[in-house]
Write a structure and sequence with these properties.
82 residues; four-stranded antiparallel beta sheet; alpha+beta; 2 helices
Length: 82
């Protein structure tokens, strides 16, 4: 994590018929984020793992590492590079 990249898993649940993010779980590595997402997806409709890398201009680049179960379309689009 020397480059400042942070990792987390985010769980998704259905609220009024729509998938919404409800649970975040910090992780120390890409592998841990994926494992946490997989674990969240066992008790929630779905989950995804992310990496966030800060940029020098103050912005950040968010990368979707993987998804499990039901996740919003924009997460799936990010996995496909779209």
């Amino acid at each position: 994590m020397a480059d400042g990249t942070t990792f987390f898993a985010r769980g998704f649940e259905y609220v009024l018929g729509r998938l919404v993010a409800t649970t975040d779980s910090a992780a120390n590595s890409q592998t841990e984020a994926l494992l946490r997402a997989e674990t969240l997806a066992r008790r929630l409709p779905g989950a995804a793992a992310f990496a966030v890398r800060p940029q020098r201009d103050g912005t950040e680049v968010r990368t979707i590492l993987g998804a499990f179960g039901d996740v919003p379309d924009d997460v799936i689009d990010g996995l496909a590079g779209g």
